[in-house]
Amino acid sequence: MPEYTLRIRRYDPQSGEAPHWDTHTIDLGETQSVLDAILKIKDDEDGSIGIRCSCQQAICGSCGVRMNGKPGLACNTHLEEAARRGQGTGWNPPDEGQESPVITVEPMGNMPVIRDLIVDMDSVHWKKVRRVTPWLINKEPIPEREYIVPHDNMVDVTQPMACIQCGACVSDCLAMEVDPLFVGPAALAKAYRFVGDPRDAQHAERLRDLSEDSHGIYDCTHCFNCIDACPKGVDPMNQIMRLRRMAGSDHEIKDRNNGYRHEHAFVKNIRRNGILHESDLLADSYGGKFNPSAGRELVSGLPTAIRGLTKGKMTPQKLLLHTHKAPAEVKRLFDQIDGKPERNELNLYVTGYEDEPEPHAEGAAGREPAEEQSAPDMERKA
Amino acid sequence: MKVAYWPGCVSRGFTPELHGSMAKVAPLLDIELIELDRASCCGAGVIAEHNQELADTLNARTFALAQRTDGELMMNICSTCQGAQSECQERLDANTEYRGQVNANLSDEGLRYEKGLTNKNLLWLLVENIGLDALKAKVSRPLSDLKVGPFYGCYIVRPVDRLAIDDEHPRDRYLHWVIEALGGTVIDYAGVYKCCGFPIITMNKEASLKQAGRHLGDALDAEADCLVVPCPLCHLNLDLQQPVAAKVVGRDLGMPVLHLPQLVGLALGLSPKELGMNKHIVKPMSVIDWSTSVVASAAA
């Protein structure tokens, strides 16, 4: 059996002592889980390690931890998989000459540590989930028998419903790292679960509430950490984008955070110029050059603009004129697609991926190494 | 090699030094650029937020224009373009019916996107197509003693499945590898894979610049001479906004931030000025000092 070295972060805030790392070496199969290893160490070597766990089936969502820097459930992460993870984001081979792969196990981030690997979910995660009113508010009158929901609607909300509340996405949310008040990925995914439910009476009110909250849907920075963190494929960031689409495009909620204005200014900007005209976007995102709040923002941004001008980064022409015009075809696409009575959306979580064999399937993702590169990748021309 | 080249918007807007340095570096790397000048903005995720089919159609149009060229593949120099375009391509490639609907939007212009385009950021192309050994062989002025902090940003490293980052293609190590291949020293610091904060600059300026300021401060504490970014939007928050970010985090920063082609260009013998570094808000003194000392020692 392979040997793994587990470095476990130990910390007891009550003790007054600083956190430290304990190292244990363990012989276990590569498809045993990180939780198996921790529990074995607890049984054989040190019973005082604090970890929360229950089902060991990736259902209860108790054993969220960070393994080699990436959050997930200890019970459904194989030792080999965790070991190959680098400290970055993806998958890295172990360093050359490394004898037994090292797996560091830490508590999740963005939440206070209670002891060792146990974090305080109540003060952060559950508080935020409660903030989005995570229950259905029935439309009146309540039907006498069951409420029949169109199949498509329920399929649509199955993705956020897959959430097991483990907090892995909350752990690595980069917006929450700088703004602890951000409602956050788990709670906003939960919010979509009800916003997308046709039985809910508060659809528009929920959207307005989350748009107007200065730490709501417009606080997400598109960092994709929650998508990679989620062990259940909930893609919280995608749910946040859907909330924004409904709030900004369907309900045109002109929120105080400039979310609506920024989205609409951006779309208008590209329709007109084809490529982004940054200075117009800035002004329009604050409501246009003549809007009082834009005035404030533009004045506060003046030193930045002056620095840009002196360095030749920006030129007066670039700031004021529109040298790049969108081709007529681009404008037509905006008008034609935005003018459709219903938006056309593809949700890959629901439809899945077609698995048809393709002659150039290997090059399709652009992932062939240099030595295999013989035929051009773009053989199929229009 | 010949590539269909998508420079993006910001490289021709507020970071003109990026577009300029790519043009200077390309011939040194034997890359022939066929610029897609009729293509439109990738949408940066914002157009998709507004209308997914619109974003997918605009990018399908860009892909179709790329497929009409005789380039081996499509190349971009902006991580945000890479991420936004990969997201659209994932949907287009996954579903024939949907691809047909999007292509119907393009038919008036006589364009059609065929599944399976290869679209790579310059960073991926350097490692996977040019190769690190070939890159090393081209280095005329190794970045010896230059301590460079990689700043990947988000769109080029996440989500790992969509971007095909795996054991065989550890694309989240490529910036480290390229810095080493160019002879520089990699500085690891807390912000390597974090977000620059740019996407929320108009919505929550303080949170946005707190992110930029923290990463710059962490790089400073780790004694980096400069950072290198594969994304011009990160450059806006890390360089253009750096004086404001410094105020938000309450410390002096002064951390030079280089675009990827600028770092490559330095090692291939171009001067900081030729690479447009005079356009940076934070004057890259450490880099200029390094380059003068290297030139002086070569002359001596």
Task: Describe it.
The complex is a heterodimer of chains A (382) and B (300). Chain A is an alpha+beta fold and 382 residues long. Chain A has 3 domains: 113 residues, Ubiquitin-like (UB roll), CATH 3.10.20; 130 residues, Fumarate Reductase Iron-sulfur Protein, Chain B, domain 2 (Orthogonal Bundle); 80 residues, no CATH class. Chain A is 40% helix and 9% strand. Chain A has 18 helices and 7 strands. Chain A starts with a strand and ends in an 18-residue tail after the last helix. Chain B is an alpha/beta fold and 300 residues long. Chain B is 47% helix and 10% strand. Chain B contains 13 helices and 8 strands. In chain B, α3 crosses α4 and α3 crosses α5. The two termini of chain B are 37 Å apart. Classes of the chains: A alpha+beta (382), B alpha/beta (300).
Please give a handful of descriptors for the protein shown.
heterodimer; A: 382 residues; alpha+beta; Fumarate Reductase Iron-sulfur Protein, Chain B, domain 2; five-stranded mixed β-sheet; 18 helices; globular; B: 300 residues; alpha/beta; four-stranded parallel β-sheet
Question: Can you describe this structure in just a few lines?
Answer:
By secondary structure, chain A is of the alpha+beta class. Chain A has helices at 34-44, 79-84, 122-131, 151-161, 168-171, 174-178, 185-195, 203-212, 225-229, 236-250, 259-273, 278-285, 292-300, 302-311, 316-320, 328-338, 348-351, 361-364, and strands at 3-10, 20-27, 64-67, 70-73, 102-106, 113-115, 118-119.
